[in-house]
Design brief:
This protein is about 70% helix and about 0% strand. The chain has three helices and no strands. The N and C termini lie far apart (about 155 Å).
Protein backbone atom coordinates (compact mmCIF):
# COMPACT_ATOMS: atom_id res chain seq x y z
CA UNK A 1 0.00 0.00 0.00
CA UNK A 2 2.89 2.26 -0.32
CA UNK A 3 1.92 3.05 -3.85
CA UNK A 4 -1.02 5.10 -2.86
CA UNK A 5 0.88 8.05 -1.27
CA UNK A 6 3.41 7.99 -4.07
CA UNK A 7 0.60 8.04 -6.61
CA UNK A 8 -1.00 11.04 -4.86
CA UNK A 9 2.24 13.00 -4.84
CA UNK A 10 2.80 12.22 -8.50
CA UNK A 11 -0.75 13.34 -9.35
CA UNK A 12 -0.33 16.64 -7.48
CA UNK A 13 3.02 17.36 -9.13
CA UNK A 14 1.55 16.55 -12.53
CA UNK A 15 -1.35 18.91 -11.90
CA UNK A 16 0.97 21.70 -10.84
CA UNK A 17 3.19 21.15 -13.85
CA UNK A 18 0.15 21.16 -16.15
CA UNK A 19 -1.13 24.36 -14.56
CA UNK A 20 2.26 25.96 -15.05
CA UNK A 21 2.33 24.98 -18.71
CA UNK A 22 -1.20 26.29 -19.23
CA UNK A 23 -0.32 29.54 -17.50
CA UNK A 24 2.74 30.01 -19.69
CA UNK A 25 0.81 29.08 -22.82
CA UNK A 26 -1.83 31.67 -21.98
CA UNK A 27 0.42 34.46 -20.73
CA UNK A 28 3.36 34.38 -23.13
CA UNK A 29 1.31 35.42 -26.17
CA UNK A 30 -0.24 38.20 -24.10
CA UNK A 31 3.21 39.37 -23.07
CA UNK A 32 4.36 39.33 -26.67
CA UNK A 33 1.32 41.30 -27.85
CA UNK A 34 1.70 43.79 -25.02
CA UNK A 35 5.39 44.24 -25.79
CA UNK A 36 4.61 44.83 -29.47
CA UNK A 37 2.02 47.46 -28.56
CA UNK A 38 4.49 49.07 -26.17
CA UNK A 39 7.14 49.30 -28.90
CA UNK A 40 4.57 50.82 -31.25
CA UNK A 41 3.61 53.37 -28.59
CA UNK A 42 7.25 54.33 -28.08
CA UNK A 43 7.69 54.75 -31.83
CA UNK A 44 4.58 56.95 -31.94
CA UNK A 45 5.93 59.05 -29.08
CA UNK A 46 9.25 59.66 -30.82
CA UNK A 47 7.45 60.57 -34.06
CA UNK A 48 5.30 63.07 -32.21
CA UNK A 49 1.87 61.46 -32.56
CA UNK A 50 1.05 61.50 -28.88
CA UNK A 51 -2.63 60.64 -29.31
CA UNK A 52 -1.88 57.32 -31.02
CA UNK A 53 0.74 56.55 -28.37
CA UNK A 54 -1.76 57.31 -25.62
CA UNK A 55 -4.32 54.98 -27.24
CA UNK A 56 -1.77 52.14 -27.49
CA UNK A 57 -0.67 52.58 -23.89
CA UNK A 58 -4.26 52.64 -22.66
CA UNK A 59 -4.99 49.47 -24.64
CA UNK A 60 -2.04 47.74 -22.99
CA UNK A 61 -3.19 48.70 -19.50
CA UNK A 62 -6.79 47.64 -20.19
CA UNK A 63 -6.24 44.37 -22.11
CA UNK A 64 -3.02 43.08 -20.53
CA UNK A 65 -3.07 44.38 -16.93
CA UNK A 66 -0.79 41.71 -15.42
CA UNK A 67 2.15 42.09 -17.75
CA UNK A 68 5.40 43.96 -17.45
CA UNK A 69 4.34 46.04 -20.44
CA UNK A 70 1.28 47.23 -18.52
CA UNK A 71 3.50 48.59 -15.74
CA UNK A 72 5.72 50.31 -18.30
CA UNK A 73 2.63 51.67 -20.09
CA UNK A 74 1.31 53.09 -16.84
CA UNK A 75 4.59 54.89 -16.23
CA UNK A 76 4.62 56.17 -19.81
CA UNK A 77 1.04 57.45 -19.49
CA UNK A 78 1.95 59.29 -16.30
CA UNK A 79 4.98 60.88 -17.97
CA UNK A 80 2.83 61.93 -20.96
CA UNK A 81 0.34 63.55 -18.60
CA UNK A 82 3.13 65.32 -16.75
CA UNK A 83 4.65 66.61 -20.00
CA UNK A 84 1.28 67.88 -21.23
CA UNK A 85 0.65 69.66 -17.93
CA UNK A 86 4.02 71.40 -18.19
CA UNK A 87 3.30 72.50 -21.77
CA UNK A 88 -0.14 73.76 -20.81
CA UNK A 89 1.40 75.63 -17.87
CA UNK A 90 3.85 77.36 -20.22
CA UNK A 91 1.05 78.29 -22.62
CA UNK A 92 -1.06 79.59 -19.74
CA UNK A 93 1.83 81.71 -18.41
CA UNK A 94 2.41 83.16 -21.90
CA UNK A 95 -1.28 83.98 -22.30
CA UNK A 96 -1.36 85.63 -18.86
CA UNK A 97 1.64 87.84 -19.73
CA UNK A 98 0.04 88.76 -23.02
CA UNK A 99 -3.25 89.57 -21.27
CA UNK A 100 -1.47 91.78 -18.74
CA UNK A 101 0.29 93.67 -21.54
CA UNK A 102 -3.00 94.18 -23.34
CA UNK A 103 -4.65 95.40 -20.15
CA UNK A 104 -1.83 97.90 -19.61
CA UNK A 105 -2.19 99.12 -23.18
CA UNK A 106 -5.96 99.47 -22.76
CA UNK A 107 -5.50 101.38 -19.50
CA UNK A 108 -3.00 103.73 -21.16
CA UNK A 109 -5.34 104.36 -24.08
CA UNK A 110 -8.31 104.95 -21.78
CA UNK A 111 -6.27 107.44 -19.77
CA UNK A 112 -5.30 109.24 -22.97
CA UNK A 113 -8.94 109.38 -24.06
CA UNK A 114 -9.98 110.70 -20.65
CA UNK A 115 -7.24 113.35 -20.81
CA UNK A 116 -8.49 114.43 -24.22
CA UNK A 117 -12.06 114.69 -22.95
CA UNK A 118 -11.12 116.80 -19.95
CA UNK A 119 -8.58 119.01 -21.66
CA UNK A 120 -9.90 122.36 -22.87
CA UNK A 121 -9.01 122.71 -26.42
CA UNK A 122 -8.64 126.33 -27.48
CA UNK A 123 -9.04 126.87 -31.15
CA UNK A 124 -6.16 128.61 -32.87
CA UNK A 125 -6.74 132.33 -33.50
CA UNK A 126 -8.43 132.96 -36.78
CA UNK A 127 -5.86 134.71 -38.90
CA UNK A 128 -6.93 136.58 -41.96
CA UNK A 129 -6.14 134.56 -44.97
CA UNK A 130 -3.79 136.37 -47.33
CA UNK A 131 -5.42 137.46 -50.56
CA UNK A 132 -4.76 135.16 -53.43
CA UNK A 133 -1.85 136.17 -55.59
CA UNK A 134 -2.80 137.76 -58.85
CA UNK A 135 -2.14 135.54 -61.77
CA UNK A 136 -0.12 136.95 -64.56
CA UNK A 137 -1.52 136.53 -67.99
CA UNK A 138 0.63 134.24 -70.02
CA UNK A 139 2.63 136.04 -72.65
CA UNK A 140 1.80 135.16 -76.21
CA UNK A 141 4.49 133.21 -77.83
CA UNK A 142 4.87 133.32 -81.53
CA UNK A 143 6.35 130.32 -83.01
CA UNK A 144 7.68 130.29 -86.50
CA UNK A 145 8.52 127.18 -88.26
CA UNK A 146 11.84 127.11 -89.92
CA UNK A 147 11.82 125.41 -93.20
CA UNK A 148 14.91 123.92 -94.63
CA UNK A 149 15.29 123.64 -98.37
CA UNK A 150 15.31 120.16 -99.69
CA UNK A 151 18.50 119.08 -101.25
CA UNK A 152 18.17 117.21 -104.44
CA UNK A 153 20.79 114.77 -105.40
CA UNK A 154 21.13 113.09 -108.71
CA UNK A 155 21.39 109.46 -108.69
CA UNK A 156 23.26 107.95 -111.48
CA UNK A 157 23.31 104.38 -112.29
CA UNK A 158 26.28 102.84 -113.90
CA UNK A 159 26.14 99.62 -115.71
CA UNK A 160 28.87 97.20 -115.18
CA UNK A 161 30.61 95.94 -118.18
CA UNK A 162 31.14 92.38 -118.71
Amino acid sequence: MRFRPLLMVTAILSSLLGAGVVYLAMSVPNDLRADALLKQARTDMTEGSLERARESLTTIVEKYPRTDAAAAATVALLSLDHREREEQGKILAYLRRQSEQQQETIATLQKGIQDLRTARVTPPPAAAAPPPAAKKAPAKKTTTKKTTPKKTTKKTTTKKRK
